[in-house]
Amino acid sequence: MATTADFKNGLCIDFNNELWSIVEFQHVKPGKGPAFVRTKLRNLRTGRVLENTFNAGVKIELARVERRPYQFLYKEGDTTYNFMHAETYEQLAIEENLINNPGLLKEGQNVEIMYHADTDTPLTCELPPFVVLEVTYTEPGVKGDTATNAAKRAVVETGAEVFVPLFIETGEIIKVDTRTNKYAERVK
């Protein structure tokens, strides 16, 4: 058991008989009345985001989860992805809806799969915060068209579309943020 004072981003809790991860939280102490905690919770099974308010000091049931290192092997069909455990070499097939950004997943990519420790079932597959990918196609940038922070579409080697600055060209290597699906920087 824990209390609202133990809240932190990424903490997994058992709330209303389902597993939830805390996306963000804010302790609020109004001038009048008791303190409370505003939270955004993400359901680990469905991905649904819920806003909830807890009274300060309320007891919360923590969920036991484990993060295990895996490597992406290949995609089978339209929605099944195959992974290999980094230490035991066991293979695992999971559905696309468990992966936080499947469009940026490249063969050989290292990921972490979160398991519910009590039932030993996979909950989510998380890519690293940034991935390095090659731009396979983009329109040429127009000179003099840089009065604002202009962006153009680019297709990366996994087939995903990312908006990039006008100076990025086909064949360049870029770093993409997997949480927001946005261009971060050019890699030398």
Short summary:
This protein is mainly beta and 188 residues long. The protein has strands at residues 2-3, 12-15, 18-28, 36-43, 49-55, 59-62, 65-76, 80-85, 91-95, 110-116, 121-126, 130-138, 151-156, 161-165, 173-177, 182-186.
Helical stretch tally: 0
How many whole angstroms does the radius of gyration measure? 20 Å
For the record, the CATH architecture of the largest domain stands as Beta Barrel
The strand line-up of the biggest sheet is 1-6-2-3-4-5
How would you describe the shape? flat
Number of strands: 16
CATH superfamily of the largest domain: Nucleic acid-binding proteins
Write the layout of secondary structure elements.
Layout: E1 2-3, E2 12-15, E3 18-28, E4 36-43, E5 49-55, E6 59-62, E7 65-76, E8 80-85, E9 91-95, E10 110-116, E11 121-126, E12 130-138, E13 151-156, E14 161-165, E15 173-177, E16 182-186
Antiparallel strand pairs: 1-6, 2-3, 2-6, 3-4, 4-5, 7-8, 7-10, 8-9, 10-11, 12-13, 12-15, 13-14, 15-16
Describe this structure in words.
This protein has 188 residues and is mainly β. The protein folds into three domains: 2-62, SH3 type barrels (Roll); 65-126, Nucleic acid-binding proteins (OB fold (Dihydrolipoamide Acetyltransferase, E2P), Beta Barrel), CATH 2.40.50; 130-186, Nucleic acid-binding proteins (OB fold (Dihydrolipoamide Acetyltransferase, E2P)). Helices cover 0% and strands 54% of the residues. It is built from no helices and 16 strands. The chain has a six-stranded antiparallel beta sheet with strand order 1-6-2-3-4-5, with no helix packed on it. A five-stranded antiparallel beta sheet has the order 9-8-7-10-11, with no helix packed on it. Strand 8 (80-85) and strand 9 (91-95) form a beta hairpin. The chain is flat. The mean pLDDT is 90.
